[in-house]
């Protein structure tokens, strides 16, 4: 806690990590399905030219990249959630965040003009919200 008597410290909900992971899985799943669909369409149109081993290899490579990207997204979001903290003090808010570059932002209350609370589809699923 801070030395000031009226302060509050907090961090991002761990549900944020799950929400971002689901968004990444859905997006990459759609992209992966499209790539596999294009490969299979190409195979259907030129089945006598393309060796079956190349088809299997292409599918394995695409799904391996899918899994690798999901693991990277999960790791990045885990570190981001762990490093994001905020402190609400008597006359300002201090936000600390960053994975590769650590940033400390101090926002005096006099500079805040409005606050938007956004609850999208995924936010409602995980009972979270975004403050902008």
Automatic annotation (TrEMBL):
InterPro entries: YdbS-like_PH. Keywords: Membrane, Transmembrane, Transmembrane helix. Residues 81-131 form the YdbS-like PH domain. Pfam families: bPH_2. The chain crosses the membrane at residues 21-48, 54-76. This is YdbS-like PH domain-containing protein. It comes from marine sediment metagenome.
